Each structure stands twice: as structure tokens, then as C-alpha cells.
Amino acid sequence: MIDKSLLVRVFGHTATLLHHDTLVIDRWLWLKKKLPITKDKETLIDIGCGSGAFTIGSAKRGYKSLGLSWDERNTNVAEERSVICNAHNVKYETCDIRKLEDRSDLHEKSNVAICVEVIEHIIDDQKLFREIVKCIKPGGRLLLTTPYYDGNPIVNDSLGPFDQVEEDGSHVRKGYTKGMLLELCNDSNLILEEVSYCSGFFSQKITGFLRFLEDNIDPMLAWIIVLPLRIIPLIFDKPISKIFNWPGYSICMEAYKPKQQ
Fold first, then answer.
1. Chain center to CA of 43
2. Three-state secondary structure of 27-81
3. Could you tell me which CATH number the domain at 4-200+247-256 has?
4. What is the pLDDT of residues 144-162, one digit of tens each?
5. Tens of pLDDT along 231-245?
6. How far apart are CA 46 and CA 194, in angstroms?
7. By CB neighbour count within 10 A (0-12 exposed, 13-18 middle, 19+ buried), where does 252 fall?
8. Residue 159 CA from chain centroid, whole number
9. Residue spans per domain, the chain
10. Is the peptide bond before 161 cis (omega within 30 degrees of 0)?
């Protein structure tokens, strides 16, 4: 089996974006546009950072970054990859973000908070949203992506049923619309500045193909088969999605925390 950390040693941060489905790259390309390179000691918190791909990417762009993950193994992997990628201004903590209210030490510490494909896993999304906003400095921003409610399912279990009682790592809701995100922003006194969408036709179809192969053959072999196809969405996703009016998989939101509440 290929050592994925070996790929990070060879290809750097880019390799961290290739370890999962093709949708990960799309999310990073959106985030990257919203995270201009900085030398101003800006701080960033990554809520639900997984194995650190976006935390590392943010740190490489100059942000002093903190990644929070509930999984200690993910935290260890993220720390290892940060060292390999020479991302020195980054650290990680194992933290259950459902209990973020216990972390008053994080209040108003970050210029930017990012939360990528997380809130759809949390039953009390309103509470999580409020706690994330508390971590942002006045005048700071929240960058968030989550599945688009009106999008097309990649796999059948994207249609539900969704468990609203127990959080086991699966989705607890189908996704969000612009109105649903606006409601969360209003509840937390955030100003919704921009909504867009990412991961179009080819990203979704290739990811669906990858997941089919993972379920029916060896996951590593599936990854190798799909690897050459990853260039296709980067070139053709936008025009084809526009022609066929194909909705994005994720809805992407940028919101602003007013300096005066």
C-alpha cells in the first residue's frame, strides 16, 4: 500500500488535497481565493480540520493557523504533514467542536474562521455556529462550505434518512440553502456577504465513480484509477455545469462579523 505521507514528501501541500475525493480540491480553490497571502500576522482557526489540508494551506499563505479535530489520529497526521510541508505557523488540538463553548480561551482570537463540510454532521448547528462566531475577532470573517440542499446526490445515502438523535459522523441533514445560511448568520449577528457554489458536474461524477470503486475493489487501487481523471474538473467543470445548469455539490458562504455588535 502506498504511504500517503510519502506523497506529501514528494508533492508537498498539493498531495494533501488528493488523498480524498475530487471535491476537496474544489473547496480549497474557493478558500484560496478568500485567503489572500498575508504578512500581517493574521490568525485563522479551522473548525473540524480533519487531517489538516486546509489548515496547512492557510498557514502556507501566511496565516497563524489553529486546526481543531475531534480525532486524535487526524491530529497526529496533520502535525506530521505540517512538518513535511514546512508549515511552521500552525498547530493542532484535539477538540470536540460540539463542546466549543468550553473553550473561552479561543474567543475573539481569530481574524478568520473556516468551517468546511462540518455543520451538516452536527445536530445543533445553531449552537455550533454561535460558538464559531465567538472565536472570530470583531471585523473578522467566516468562510464556510456545506452540501447544497438543492444539489444532486452523489450516492444514494445522500438522500437520507438522516439521524437527528445520534451523531455518528454521518450527515444529520441533506444540506443548506442560501436562506438557511442567512438564518444562521442573522441568529449570530453576522453579515452574509457572499454565497457561491463549488464542485460541478465532473467533480461530482468522478467522486461518485471513486466511491463506487472503493466499495467494490481495493480503496488504494480505486484512488490510483481515478487519479488521472482529476484534471478533468479543473478544465471542464464550470462550462459544462453552466451548459447543463448543474447545481454545485457545496454551497459556499463568506460572512463578516461587525466591529460593533
1. 17
2. HHHHHHHHCCCCCCCCEEEEECCCCCHHHHHHHHCCCEEEEEECCHHHHHHHHHH
3. 3.40.50.150
4. 999 999 999 898 777 777 7
5. 999 999 999 999 999
6. 19
7. buried
8. 21
9. 4-200+247-256
10. yes
